[in-house]
Amino acid sequence: LAKTTQPISMDSYEGQEVNITCSHNNIATNDYITWYQQFPSQGPRFIIQGYKTKVTNEVASLFIPADRKSSTLSLPRVSLSDTAVYYCLVGVLGGSKAGNMLTFGGGTRLMVKP
Amino acid sequence: SAVISQKPSRDICQRGTSLTIQCQVDSQVTMMFWYRQQPGQSLTLIATANQGSEATYESGFVIDKFPISRPNLTFSTLTVSNMSPEDSSIYLCSVGTGIVFFGQGTRLTVV
Fold first, then answer.
1. Which of A20, A44, B17, B108 has the fewest CB atoms lying closer than 10 Å?
2. Is A40 exposed, middle or buried (0-12, 13-18, 19+ CB in 10 A)?
3. Cα four-point dihedral sign A101, B108, A47, B74
């Protein structure tokens, strides 16, 4: 099982760039890396998904080094509304249990301060 | 993306009773999943419910406690049976279409 390790919590200030790193040392060849955001009393919301190098969308960037043993979610210019828990998942839908896309780790609780 | 609707959004139930949670998706999907999120905790997968087959339960979850139905490609139900206060959690329905999308969850409080 591709276990993920993230910092438990992070603090930042409005307008800053926030980088959250996730370690996944035993990622499998077919595994993708997916990040979710969760606000209190809501279901997780998909942010971004990648396989290697860099992926960017309208809300975030995902950096994945060549060995794919870690990944970094980058949130540009955060605001108070970005205060949430961020989860990193690795795996592939329909794949074997080793590398299960559906297993959530502890997540990173991001607090954005004014 | 898929739009997922769960009912009820919240409920307060007496111990020993059962609650059935409904999950409706706006498109046909093969893979549906049910999660539990206990207060202050991460999400834990309860079971995978694919249409046309029996649900597959994760370790620690059994069909007698959490029976699941999947009658078609857009609908599923999860029943929490013989509830106790330890079942107080948020229960989330999700669907897999390459990316996993989640409903807003059902907040269950057992008293």
1. B17
2. exposed
3. positive
Chain B CB contacts of A102 under 8 Å are: 33, 45, 48, 96, 100
Residues B1-54: tens digit of each pLDDT? 789 999 999 999 999 999 999 999 999 998 899 999 999 999 999 999 988 888
Nearest to B107 by CA among A32, A40, A3: A40
Please give the structure tokens belonging to residue B92: 């989330």
Nearest residue of chain A to residue B30 (CA atoms): A94
Inter-chain residue contact B96 with A43, CB threshold 8 Å: no
Query: What are the backbone dihedrals phi and psi of residue B56, each rounded to the nearest 5 degrees, phi first?
Result: -105, 120
pLDDT in the model for residue B47: 93
Kindly state the DSSP code that residue A5 receives in the 8-state scheme: B
Pairing of strands B56-57, B68-72: unpaired
* Residue tagged 């502890």 (tokens): A106
Distances from the Cα of A68 to the Cα of A26, A56, B12, B19, B85, angstroms = 9, 17, 45, 43, 42
Nearest 5°: phi and psi at A77? 50, 70
Structure tokens belonging to residue B8 = 């009820």
